[in-house]
Amino acid sequence: MKRRGSIAACAALSLVVGYAAHAAEQTNRVDGVSVDLMEDAKTVVDASAYVKKPPYRIASLMQGPINGWGLTLDTTIAWMASQDKDVGELIVVPINANVDREISAMENTIQLKPDPAAALSAWVARAVAAGIPVVVCADGVEGKPYTAYVDVDLYRGGYESAKALAEAIGGKGNVIMINGIPGVDAAEVWKEAALEVFAKYPDIKVVGSEYSNWSIPTSKEKATALLAANPQIDGVFAGGSEGAICALLAFEEAGRPQPVYGTVSPLNGWLRLAMEKKVKFTAWPQAAALEGKYCFETGMKILRGEPVTKFVHIPEVVITEANAAEHYVPELNDDFSVPPVAPLEVYIEAGFGRK
């Protein structure tokens, strides 16, 4: 009988979400674009050393279903694995946004003695040295020790959504920021990118900034407090649409006019509310299902000896109030991270059905 609760033997492949401490110095950016990642997108990785015969044993060390984005990612990877005849076992280890738990899972994956002093990047390097290719999904790892990294350009998403917000409010006004989990790469990159943009506009003032852990309840609490402290808010930047959703609801409850929104990684619920309330917004993607699809496909290519690039750049489709209806999925609930990759019934079975 296969045990799914722990990883007792070496995996052929590790898919890892990069819950590492943020390292701003590792990326060169120009005009909102991560230049080094674009170079990595042209760099071909020789996968011949990782070729293995199926069936494959794959370890999936992901964020975990702590929110809709995480559950969308997990559901998509599980479905992708179920559709591939070469996958013998998918071992899912939800890290629940805890890097220490992720490091422990990496220890088990590669069967090495624990080293409490080693950061996640060190464990990734050790896995690769042990002959286990590591595909990092959705966030980077310091030093780039991985085999391949699959994602959107996080910095560009934060930069462009903040830039659209700044332009929409005429380059002047008060802005609040609602960010994700402190120290996590995506949250800090989006925040840095937005601040870089706002610094270019002398008449834009960031009057409040809070972390909300990509949690709806926490985002609501933070948004309500920011509104209470600031009688005039012209724009909201949300590093994750959980913050945008709760800011919209807070403005609605306070009876105040809706501001302009710039956000990233839009959830289905954001699209629904934004359309209902007719708010102006720009949302750059980090779609969980597409992360799962491209991450899994990249891993399988490596095991089969097919060339991949060091950075696999997921196509970026920007959503605004003008095209929101094209991306909204009415059959799925507010927590779902659009767009779907698996058939809708797969996500409905996972708990995303709209009631």
Helix/strand order: EEEHEEHEHHEEHEHEHEHEHEHEEEHH
What distance separates the N and C termini? 36 Å
Give the class-level CATH name of the largest domain: Alpha Beta
* Count of spatially separate domains: 2
Question: What are its keywords?
Answer:
355 residues, alpha/beta, Rossmann fold, 2 domains, 6-stranded parallel β-sheet, globular, disordered N terminus
Task: Give a verbal description of the structure.
The chain has two domains: about 15-150 and about 290-315 and about 340-350, 3-Layer(aba) Sandwich (Rossmann fold); about 155-285, Rossmann fold, CATH 3.40.50.2300. It contains twelve helices and 16 strands. The protein has helices spanning about 35-40, 70-80, 100-110, 120-130, 155-170, 185-200, 215-230, 240-255, 270-275, 290-305, 325, 345-350, and strands spanning about 15, 30, 35, 45, 55-60, 85-90, 135, 150, 170-180, 205-210, 235-240, 260-265, 280-285, 310, 310-315, 320. The strands form four sheets. It has a six-stranded parallel sheet, with helices on both faces. Strands 10-9-11-12-13-16 form a six-stranded mixed sheet, sandwiched between helices. It has a two-stranded antiparallel ribbon with strand order 2-3. α6 links the parallel β9 (about 170-180) and β10 (about 205-210). Residues about 1-10, about 20-25 and about 110-120 have low confidence and may be disordered.
List the helices and strands and how they pair.
Blueprint: E1 13-17, E2 29-30, E3 33-34, H1 35-40, E4 44-45, E5 56-61, H2 68-82, E6 87-92, H3 99-110, H4 120-129, E7 134-137, E8 148-151, H5 154-168, E9 172-179, H6 185-199, E10 203-211, H7 216-229, E11 235-238, H8 241-254, E12 260-264, H9 268-277, E13 281-284, H10 288-303, E14 308-309, E15 311-313, E16 319-320, H11 324-327, H12 344-352
Helix pairs in contact: 2-10, 2-12, 3-4, 5-6, 7-8, 8-9
